[in-house]
Amino acid sequence: SKDMGKMLKFALERIRTILNVETGNVYLRENEQIRIAMASDAKTRSMKKVPFKVGQGIAGRAVAVGKATMLNDAEKLSRFYREIHPQTDDIIRSALCIPLLSHGKIVGLVEVLNKIEGNFDDEDEKNLKPISDAIGEALQHFQTSSDKPTKST
Fold it and tell me: How far apart are CA 37 and CA 25, in angstroms?
């Protein structure tokens, strides 16, 4: 929905500022696939239509294992990223992925890429976790509201 898009865009802007990262993405899980729901940069937004499998790439692996995944190894990250987006020439130096939970189920993922100064650390994960939890709850709210039948007058 339009409101969900606004909420995700706002959340990503705040996350980028708080964690001082180049870019961030929110992915939604659809059964055994994941797709970008919102990206903070136009280039990634153009890849929204391309789903990938749970377990594929660093984002897919974070969803598969169900816990935060942090990687500060540019070589490995580039390999993971090309698994999903072979056409990209983006250089990924660092990544932090936190699954989005709703009622105990993994419904998606927040991914932040390329910390501007230094590497990701436990403090970054600690700062991103409550925001990710709030996004997971909000996604559940949007899902619940879209499932409700509309009243006809």
Answer: 8
What is the full per-residue pLDDT of the chain (153 aa) written as tens digits?
Answer: 688 889 999 999 999 999 999 999 999 999 999 988 888 876 665 566 678 889 888 888 899 999 999 989 877 776 666 666 556 667 788 899 999 998 889 999 999 999 999 999 999 999 999 999 999 988 887 766 665 554 444
Distance CA 82, CA 91 (A): 10
Q: What is d(CA 153, CA 103) in angstroms, rounded to the nearest whole number?
A: 33
Residue 150 in domain: no
Residue 61 exposed, middle or buried by CB count within 10 Å (0-12, 13-18, 19+): middle
Q: How many domains does the chain have?
A: 1
Do the domain assignments include residue 26?
yes
Q: Could you tell me the two tokens for 140? A: 């559940």
The pair of structure tokens assigned to 29 is: 């899980």
- The answer to whether residue 71 is domain-embedded is yes
Q: Can you give the CATH number for the domain in which 36 is found?
A: 3.30.450.40
Write out the two tokens for 88. Answer: 């990209």
What is the residue range of 89's domain? 2-140
